[in-house]
UniProtKB/TrEMBL annotation:
The keyword Nucleus applies. Residues 43-106 form the TF-B3 domain. PANTHER family: B3 DOMAIN-CONTAINING TRANSCRIPTION FACTOR ABI3 (PTHR31140), TF-B3 DOMAIN-CONTAINING PROTEIN (PTHR31140:SF145). Coiled coil: none annotated. It comes from the Eukaryota. SUPFAM superfamilies: DNA-binding pseudobarrel domain. This is TF-B3 domain-containing protein. It is found in: Nucleus. Pfam families: B3. Keywords: DNA-binding, Nucleus, Transcription, Transcription regulation. It comes from Salix suchowensis.
Length: 120
């Protein structure tokens, strides 16, 4: 089981999710020569979300981002700056199939201080 989480910034809530480069191993592999991959992830309610992950075609810094499908997910979960998203890659030992989970978490504030995060 591999995964990553990220606290959302303005661009993450409005346009695309910037994925940390070190977290690419938690997402589906790109085919040789490709700079994009489509994949599905299931949320806590069992709903399936289709995402498009791409990187720059050239240059030393790949800068991966989730685009297609991402803004719809943000709107559906009513995510805001400061909320957290978590992606997890699972491998079924019996069948060797790979699946992905996505989890949205709302920031919990008490008297202005961040207390933690709660799943949506």
């Amino acid at each position: 089981m591999k995964g990553f989480s990220k606290i959302l910034r303005k661009t993450d809530t409005k346009k695309r999710l910037s994925v940390p480069v070190r977290s690419l191993k938690s997402l589906p592999p790109f085919k040789l020569g490709s700079h994009a991959v489509e994949f599905e992830a299931t949320d806590e309610k069992g709903e399936t979300w289709a995402f498009h992950c791409s990187t720059r075609k050239s240059g030393p810094y790949r800068k991966p981002v989730l685009t297609r499908g991402w803004v719809a997910f943000v709107k559906s979960k009513k995510l805001q700056i400061g909320d957290k998203v978590r992606f997890v890659k699972y491998k079924n030992r019996a069948t060797a199939t790979i699946s992905y989970k996505v989890r949205a978490e709302k920031e919990i504030r008490i008297f202005g201080a961040i207390f933690g995060y709660a799943p949506i």
